[in-house]
Amino acid sequence: MDDKKGKGALSRRGFIAGATAIGAGMALAGCSGDADAEPSASGSDSAMDAAAAAAGAASCCTGCSALCAFRACLRTAENGDAGIGRFLGSAAHPESIGSLCAYGYASAEMLVSEASASGAEGEAGRGGAPLRRRDDGSFEETTWDDALARIGEALAAAKGQGRSVAVLVDECDLNGRYLYGLADALGSQRVYSYASDGGSDARCGELQAIGASRTVPDVEQARLVVVVGASSGRMTPGHAARLTAARERGAVVVLVDAMVPFGMPAVDAWVPVLPGTEAALLLAGAAALVREGLEAEGASACVEGLDAWKESLASCTPAWAARKTGASEADVEAFLARLCAAAPACAIDASCPGSLRFGNAAETARVVCALNALLGAYNVAGGTFVVPETSWDAAARHYATGSAEDEDRAADGGFVPRADGGAPLARVEAGSLFDLVEGIEAGEIGALVTGAPEVLAWACDAERAQRMLPSLDVSVSICAGQGQYARLCDFVLPRCSSFEEPGLPHVAYAQKPAVCRSAALIAPADDVRPLRDVCCGIAEAAGVESSFAQEIDARAEAFLADAGLSSEALGDSGSVQVASLGVSYGDAPLFATGSGKVELRSAACADAGALEVCGFADAANAVPENGVFRLLVAALPITSAARASSEAVRAFVGKERLDRMLINAESARALGIAEDDEVVVSSSSGSQTWRARLVGHIHPGAVFLPLAAVEQDDGLSPLLLVEPHATAGFGTPDLSQATVTVRKVGA
């Protein structure tokens, strides 16, 4: 077997031939909303399921932070041409449970598109040799030895001048820990990570409230399920299935959101709120519980700052919530009645990957934690599980803080969040991208190594990056596909895609967490290298130890052994549930905070400039009226797939009008806007022209624009309508929401 080719890996030709055909079909089925229209490639077929057990390879989708596990079923033909018969979502993974979402299938197609492309001389493309930027901005091919030698020399020069080396990691990268290891070897404390789907923002708030433990809503046993902020995220197959099963069992499912999200199953009620105002409704719910004497017994024993928080709830009346959210007071009252009737079996569900992606996402996450505490819902049937963070995930956390003390805490399996000197609280979780940008512009950072240059788009636009990156001694992009920001770097090093290299283990948190690991599905393109090898090569060229890779591998094996697993067994199945990593009903919840309690009052938050007592931080100041709207942005799977080569996908985008601006039909008619009219969407950052699609499932004061990626075929990107800036205290990107005006072209 070719040593570049993992167990069960296909030839590149066979992979491309098989996956291109099914990628478009699955993406189309996932977006159509018609389950009956789903093609046999992704439906249930016992013969194919049986074949999957005999032939195939396990992998994980990196389209969002859910990292759903799946198995690629391999097929062979009499002529010897191999290909992928279909993708089967892992039944053991809590978010895939036997399927993938449309975004997952579309992401697979994008990988196929990138795999089939190669860079021409002087162009940044897929595969081929490393690229070095010429003085005129164009690229030239070079050898790996030459590229690594030049990079090592530049890194040493930056350190010699007292300038830091920064490392930027995408949290959705299965092998991103090797970049952490490289940073450690280089002695860098400038380590930044961010989930490319925006899911890091709410996580920062959770860390301040409950520590590093993960929350998982117990939808299966709840009497009331409150789905919060899902329209900015992605509905996974597992999530949708749990909500559907809950309704069939008799639970009431209420959606609190500016828009009914794509892929959302049927709900019992929708409370339409302005984008970013979900916390106001939840605070009104908490106030109602206090007024009705429904505060959980023993809540004060597990909550720090409960009295101060309850005092702050006095002003959170139904009328106040209606004013803040733009919902009717009747809708607010109905929601409060449902909440009080179902307590404590209320699952507050903000678990969609990338959900609550607004400027106040962290504060809203704190409110969710507070409401759960008031309900007494933690580890109670129908409430919310508090699942301790695994030692494997905790071990990586010290890189974000650069603290040996934190590394010791991580080794003990617990992490206590902190912020030094009022630093942005995002640095406690993953570093603030704005720290990175400002450090480069101030000359404090002399070099940047990243496996995710496009993540910079959350903190600075391309024009700013074009001015900023050349000021570095060296900037290095290690990417499977070269986008706009990668092409601004000095070196573009082609790495294996997630289909071409095995991944390190990762944990999908649930009551019974799943441990997952991906194998290589396809032989690597010519002259590309696994991220592990690239990081080791850079370390050796810079004259530092490269043993970190072996240490990371050893930690991975030790973690698997402690969980009763092995690489071989996990490699065959891809995903295994491990009960010992989870929790049971009645278990005392582990809050990894300084007090060991849920902290609703935080000196660290106050010092950093965030709210001391968790509450409502409005995400926008302007009141939507007279053609002024709050902007809601989210990635649609089909628009992302439109960047791939499939003409079928492109045709479907046009047919279903998924590339349109969504606006409430009544709001549109009041402005003289009709279906398919051209409209100008304007903000303080610029204007864009879109086609309008009139719908009833969006708040009258909001408009929705689909986000495909930093680069779109038509040049449109809602990101360009928002001036990137950091949220108060937390330092996370406030880039998903803005206030815009909408007018008909020619009006």
Task: Pick out its properties.
747 residues, alpha/beta, Dimethylsulfoxide Reductase, domain 2, 4 domains, seven-stranded mixed beta sheet, 27 strands, 18% strand, globular
In short:
The protein is an alpha/beta fold and 747 residues long. Strand 6, helix 5 and strand 7 (190-194) form a beta-alpha-beta unit.
Characterise the protein shown here.
This protein is α/β, with parallel strands linked by helices. The protein folds into 4 domains: 1-116 and 499-529 and 547-584, no CATH class; 124-212 and 391-495 and 530-544, Rossmann fold, CATH 3.40.50; 214-387, Dimethylsulfoxide Reductase, domain 2 (3-Layer(aba) Sandwich), CATH 3.40.228.10; 628-744, Beta Barrel (Barwin-like endoglucanases), CATH 2.40.40.20. 34% of the residues lie in helices and 18% in strands. It has 25 helices and 27 strands. Helix 5 (177-185) packs parallel to helix 19 (531-541), helix 6 (200-210) crosses helix 13 (361-375) and helix 8 packs parallel to helix 13 (361-375). The longest helix has 21 residues, at 12-32. It starts with 11 loop residues before the first helix and ends with a strand.
